[in-house]
Amino acid sequence: MAEGPRILIVDDELVVIKSAERVLKAEGYSVEGAVGGREAILKLEKGGYDLVFTDLKMPEVDGLTLIKWLKKTNPAVGIVIITGYPSQDTIKDALELGIIDYVPKPFTPSVLLDVTERAVEWIKGRKSKEEQTVEEFPPAMAVELDRVIAKYRDTPGSLIPVLQRAQEIVGYLPPVVQKRVAKGLNLSEAEVHGVVSFYSFFTMKPRGDHNIRICLGTACYVKGIEGVLEKVKENLKIGIGETTENRNFSLEGVRCLGACGLAPVMMVDQETYGALTPAKAIDVINSYYAAAAGREPALAGASPEEEE
Length: 308
What we know:
Layout lengths: L5 E6 L2 H13 L3 E6 L1 H8 L6 E5 L7 H11 L4 E6 L4 H9 L4 E4 L4 H20 L10 H14 L6 H12 L4 H11 L3 H10 L11 E6 L2 H5 L2 H12 L12 E6 L11 E3 L2 E3 L4 H14 L12 H4 L1
Parallel strand pairs: 1-2, 1-3, 3-4, 4-5, 6-7
Antiparallel strand pairs: 6-8, 8-9
């Protein structure tokens, strides 16, 4: 990982491979493609890959078959699925096999990069997990977490409720919490992590007082959400998945907020803000600063040219 991850894109559509390669290579990733599962296996047998993006519906060797083979031969490789048919059952099957996340087709550059960055962080975290020996939360929290796990241990489908309570108790779901939940519910760490990374309401990093979620879906992308995102990142001085130093704001990128008619859209906590421009987004954030007792707005607004 010192030289950056090597990524293999597997799909039976060459245009998908080329699109992913173009986006990821522009960000400095080392990327290769394989047209179908059979070619992917031939390349993977030679080793050297850290992360695999694979389609599910492919002739001869489909995505689930490829994932099962890879988990047996090289379980250290991270896996993300690319699919135009993200049915609940299919995603559930893939999560149980230990995938990190999924990218829906058609994907925007922002969504692909967001998923890739989180997958790379997961790989780094997994490689350093053996070095982690210190509990990352106080003993009182551990006692309460164990109480919740014991309460749900014999209840089918209890993983999500337990993770929700764990996040309420600890504030986020770092690897040490996921490991404790997995052990307590007799599940694999990969299955727990797959659920945590799949659902946007879970977070693996501490959040700020206010959580900003910016939609990176197709409708918002077409309406200019990237300009909004860049302005927010610039003003808050953080990237997606990070929290400001003063812990006032956290920033997330999500696939959809269910408000496509208002695109481009972001949410701050539970409030939805649509028809955004870069300047309007900063005005919204400033309003949260102004609402805090004794605190002045801290961010500079956009110029009149940006407002237009």
